[in-house]
Amino acid sequence: MRRRASRTAEAVCLLRGLAGVDPYARAFLDPASRLLLAMPHHNRLLNVASGTLLASIAARTRFIDGVVESALAGGAEALVLLGAGLDARPWRLALGDKPVYLVDHPLTATLRAERSAALAPRPQDVRVDVDFARDDFATCLRAAGFDTTRPAAFVWEGVSMYLPQAAVQKTLADLAALAAPGSRLTLDLWSDEGWLGRLSHQLGGLGLGLLGEPLRFAVHRNDVEALLADAGFHLDRLTSAWGQSRKAALGPGHPGMLFAAATRQPT
Prior knowledge:
Rossmann fold; globular
């Protein structure tokens, strides 16, 4: 049973702030992390020291933001953050009066609410507390008023790699059941292809295991399309942190971190 908010959510928030891709990150950080954020730092050196995590998180943030903005411009009427963590997208993106459904574990959701209290309130947003080990998030979303008949944008970020394969497949199927045709889904996946991918997966698993959140799921790049299609999504785009960040000032991202954008197909 989880006894505290997600440590990785806090780490990712700090990395977003350090990388300069989230001007609202500071509001979600504790005093020690805010001090780190304010200290002078060389991002290329920090990227090397973090094992390319800095550039990878920055690339992931930009990719997902772009997909969400495209979905909203294309008619999506709501944004669902599945595993919302300390995500500042409700303030960072131009959402207008469109609601955001913030789905996460109660402990992380409470921390998020406390840390974001100083930001401008968004009364249309909906907090959806879900213990993913016990609760059905789809049922909880429907109970919170989510309209399954209208297209929406879904973000599933920083979660799939911590779940068993069966749980990943079930979550995608549940998302497809919630999503009206034309809805967009963007997510990240961990790849274990090649010796570098396998080594990185093992080393990353050891490090994250010490935080109580070990890596459990990885997929080959060539299998992503089938993984999504089995649930009812059409793969629109697939790239990696390496591909997204090669020309960025932060340095290279990790080749084993994949980003996907998909569209819910009509049934």
